[in-house]
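Weekly sync, protein design subgroup
Attendees: M.S., D.O., the rotation student, P.L. (late)

Item 1: inverse folding check
M.S. brought a backbone from last month's batch and wanted to see whether the design step gives back something sensible before we order anything. D.O. pointed out we never logged the input encoding, so this time it goes straight into the notes. Structure tokens as presented (83 positions):
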């Protein structure tokens, strides 16, 4: 149960950092945000939710010209890896 709770907390922290673009230390560098997106692949127990949430972010970020194509690419590759 302890490990399951730790994984749950880690998963949600990753999602929060990706979606907000920052962590406790402040704004994330692009490379950190890309790495967090990649890390979501290591939580297969949440894959259906992860895919839906990443697709939602991708749609949201399509409207934001300032979001990097590299972030969008990383999301698409993570979705493919989880399917």
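Designed sequence read out in the meeting:
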């Amino acid at each position: 149960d302890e490990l399951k709770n730790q994984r749950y907390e880690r998963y949600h922290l990753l999602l929060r950092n990706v979606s907000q673009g920052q962590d406790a230390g402040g704004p994330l560098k692009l490379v950190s945000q890309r790495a967090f997106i990649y890390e979501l692949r290591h939580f297969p127990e949440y894959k259906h939710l992860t895919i839906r949430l990443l697709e939602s972010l991708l749609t949201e970020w399509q409207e934001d010209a300032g979001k990097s194509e590299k972030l969008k690419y990383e999301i698409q590759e993570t979705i493919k890896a989880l399917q």
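Discussion: The mean pLDDT is 88. Helices lie at 2-20, 30-39, 47-62, 69-82.
Action: P.L. to compare against the previous round before Friday.
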